[in-house]
Amino acid sequence: METDVLIIGAGPAGLTAAVETASRGLDVTIVEESLSMGGQLIQQTQVLGSLPSFYQPKRGFELAQRLRKLVEDTSVRCLLGHRVIGFYKDGSVGISDEANVFPLKAKKIIVATGAAEKAIAFPKWTLPGIMTIGAAQTLLNRDFVLPGKHAVIIGTSDFAMDVALQLSEGGVQVKAMVEKSQTVLARDTEKVNQVSKMGIPVHVNSSIKEARGIGRVEEIDIEQREQIMTIPLDTVCVDGGRSPILDVFYQLECSFGYQRELGGWIPQYNPFFRTDREDVFLAGNAAGVSSQGVLLVTGIIAGINASESLGALSKEEAEIKTTSLWKEIETLETKLDPDVWNARIRHVQNYEHPVLTDQFIS
Amino acid sequence: MHIKHHPILGEQLQKQVTIYFKDEPYTAYEQQSVAAALLANDIKQLGVSRNLVQPRGMFCSRGRCCSCYMTVNGEDHVRTCMTKVVDGMKIYPNDGDPQVRSESHGD
């Protein structure tokens, strides 16, 4: 099997990259591990506040539907339920459908593998009923299953606020939100006020000490200024932040740089979202964890420049479009958090001087 | 508990199916993952850890942490958060390492 552009991941960035490349007449293939397109947008029921200027505000799942429709209107080949598991010696991509493995030869690859939630470790953190905050949201909004009756959320990011509200509205009693910092981390004060109106107590300067239960979580200890508070519950949602998923970049022997604000280690890339390999571009959270709006724009930039590298549009046109899209990223990311934007600029400037090459990090 | 009426997405659970956990029947709905459907039936422990034999359940729901491994329709180590329910599915907990190193499977 052969294709012009292989896109790994059908989340927001992978889908916009697919539209950009396929609409220019290229043969495009998407490999997606799950059985549906849209990535983590599928279970986002909140209105996404910071989308690019060319999008109307909409809920996450509505955006996923729109992107899916755009992709379906093109001739993109979607391999759902398939994973990239490695590379053949001749550079072909090894793709598995969980039963067989087959090679796919791609002229260009756009890696849009996204980010994974990080765990928070404490004694007995592996008890059933303790899950990532994203898992709880998936149960609620995608599988239509109530994760439990009484929950505590560890973390106070904007995402944690969204999920706290959604769990409450779905019928879960959110007994507390626990934050180890001195203040709530969420920047959206309106959401924080909504959480407080819902009567959800937020404990700052606090941390989870341990969980207990037989076969499942039954209670946790919260430590606040050397006081221990025991809370009976059946669900703990941990928000440990996210880090980019890098497996494919290791296999492709890309070089990496470290930017804490963008989620830690990320592949080096230039303003065209190309890695230090001429045939490998990247987009989305894999290029640095950011807001959904930014993810869409990075996918567009990667798609445009992958198209340019295959002669599907002129260098000048690609540069003009890329420059204006970077302005869009600046607007969105500065609004999200100026530190994230600054880290991104630093990272792209470091492209000429990679700090880590030919080294396996994990 | 299955959510019959979602505050934003409305009534989404339409096609009911029956799945079997340790040979007992449970109600699930098409489109749900196996791990989610079991949780809806208050089954949280999906297996035990291989060294210390500690209970394990669904953790990431993204197919990355492997905490939800189970045996599904005779296949071991299936990530049940990434597998959709099918009517009549037979599910058993992951209570040990499967036998993969045998003559018939190579080494």
Characteristic terms for this protein:
heterodimer, A: 362 residues, alpha/beta, 7-stranded mixed sheet, 5-stranded parallel sheet, 19 strands, globular, B: 107 residues, mainly beta, Ubiquitin-like (UB roll), two-stranded antiparallel ribbon, 7 strands
Structure, explained:
The complex is a heterodimer of chains A (362) and B (107). With 362 residues, chain A is an alpha/beta fold. In chain A, helix 5 (189-197) links the parallel strand 10 (173-178) and strand 11 (202-203). The mean pLDDT of chain A is 95. Chain A contains 9 helices and 19 strands. With 107 residues, chain B is mainly beta. Chain B has a single domain, classed as Ubiquitin-like (UB roll) (Roll). In chain B, 7% of the residues lie in helices and 27% in strands. Chain B contains 1 helix and 7 strands, in the order E-E-H-E-E-E-E-E. Chain B has one helix at residues 34-40; strands at 16-21, 24-29, 47-48, 55-56, 69-72, 75-79, 90-93. Chain B has a 5-stranded mixed beta sheet, covered by helices on one side. In chain B, strands 3-4 form a two-stranded antiparallel ribbon. In chain B, a hairpin with a 6-residue loop joins strand 3 and strand 4. Chain B is globular. Chain B starts with 15 loop residues before the first strand and ends in a 14-residue tail after the last strand. Chain A binds chain B through residues 33-35, 45, 59, 61, 116-117, 119, 126-132, 134-135, 138-141, 143-147, 169-171, 215-216, 245, and chain B through 1-3, 6-9, 12-13, 29, 31-33, 36-37, 39-40, 44-46, 49, 54-65, 67, 81-82, 84.
